[in-house]
Design goal:
The chain is of the alpha+beta class and 175 residues long. It has one domain (2-174): Gcn5-related N-acetyltransferase (GNAT) (Aminopeptidase), CATH 3.40.630.30. Helices cover 37% and strands 31% of the residues. It contains six helices and eight strands; from the N terminus they run E-E-H-H-H-E-E-H-E-H-E-H-E-E. It has helices spanning 20-36, 44-47, 49-61, 86-92, 117-131, 146-153; strands at 2-5, 8-14, 65-70, 73-81, 101-108, 136-142, 158-163, 167-174. Strands 1-2-3-4-5-6-8-7 form an eight-stranded mixed β-sheet, with helices on both faces.
Length: 175
């Protein structure tokens, strides 16, 4: 579907398994950039990409992963799960039983950073969730990723920081 995000028109499509490489490339590029910022967010994409493909491929097969393209070039990807993953169950505990959407792996290629695409995608995700009758969107990031936490906290309140597999900041959007 073609959507206007911020000032430009982008194509947002559900990823098909044959486009897994596009998603992986975006994630690896983001992980490499994050490493230069001294955060371990997504470092497993650099150290064990093969071991993490299964989860991404499962999300693609579930129709939960999206690709954003501009003029045929992938510039962003994100995953919206209707059912909490094992990670979500561990992180959110009893709350994971609520009917919520879980946002994972939202990334914008560095060549397109600073153009408001991330914020526009968050707006689009919220609108799509509301239209689908959803009431909650949940997501998290590593607690030590100051840049991403600051970015999210310009828009959303920090729900809490949990100490599961290290420090993780939890965010919840009530629609």
């Amino acid at each position: 579907m073609r959507v206007k995000l911020h000032k430009e028109v982008y194509e947002i499509t559900q990823v098909k398994s044959e486009d897994l490489h596009k998603v992986l490339e975006l994630l690896v590029d983001a992980a490499a950039w994050l490493k230069t910022k001294r955060t371990k967010q997504w470092s497993y994409y650099l150290t064990d990409l093969d071991g993490n493909k299964e989860e991404i491929l499962r999300s693609i097969e579930n129709g939960a992963t999206y690709l954003v393209e501009s003029e045929g070039q992938p510039i962003s990807t994100f995953t919206i799960e209707n059912i909490p993953s094992e990670w979500d169950m561990e992180l959110w505990g009893e709350e994971a039983k609520d009917e919520a959407l879980y946002l994972h792996r939202l990334v914008v290629h560095r060549n397109h950073a600073g153009k408001g695409i991330g914020a526009a995608l968050l707006d689009w995700i919220e609108k799509e969730a509301q239209e689908a009758g959803k009431k909650i969107i949940r997501f998290d990031c590593i607690g030590s990723n100051e840049g991403l936490n600051h970015y999210y906290q310009k828009r959303y309140s920090l729900k809490e920081v949990t100490q599961i597999h290290g420090s993780h900041s939890k965010y919840e959007i009530i629609l």
